[in-house]
Amino acid sequence: MFTTAKPTYFSPPADGSRAFSHVNVDPATGEQPKNWNEDVRVVQIEDIRGKEHEFSLDISGFQYYRHPAKHTKFTNDKEIEESTIRKVSNSLRSLLAPVGWLSSTTKHQPFALVRIDLTPASSVARVHRRTCAASRSVPDHKLMASNLSFGSRLPLAVCDFRGLDTKEDLVPFALIYPDREGETYGVKYTPNHKWMYKGAMDLEDLVLLKCFDSLQDGSVATMAPHTAFEDPKTAL
Predict the structure, then answer these.
(1) Which helix (H) or strand (E) holds 65?
(2) What's the pTM?
(3) Is the predicted pLDDT of residue 151 greater than 70, yes or no?
């Protein structure tokens, strides 16, 4: 079953300059300063509930899980962080034990922009920020960065890595913080993208998205574009 959505893609600066977006809102305009344009497209998103087992981190760049939920709704961020996110992250780390290093940023309110949250450069920078000084070299074994998302009012659509052209579809752009600069990938539209989601996700449904994989020999998926979208069948 398919649903129609209008995701916002990334359109790079026309003058060829490096794309950027400020994280903080400009008080004078009420907007986040940026030099790239939004490109809204109409796409079909397949509901893969019932066959989600056919997709995995290394094949499609994403994978669905079920995990017992303590909460019946997500209203208190501190409680979520302490009682839900940590437990889920620990469980997934056990499932992904062969991975040398895993960064999992958990989200319960997805953002409505087609993107990949990390580039290779920002993935390595995250390793440096989150590991002790004694181990700041990039591990020789497999390194993977990922995001974890669970049920919310806006469902999360994921794009199968197998329909992504990593050389043509992706544009790195700077995320300007007050004290540092990060980097993420904007995604340009192409009809080759295959979008899907798991319909009617409840609070025990989780999806893990790959943002980066140090194994770059073409044998595994290395990322999965994603975006939130409006779905009339979702009501959390």
Answers:
(1) strand 62-66
(2) 0.82
(3) no
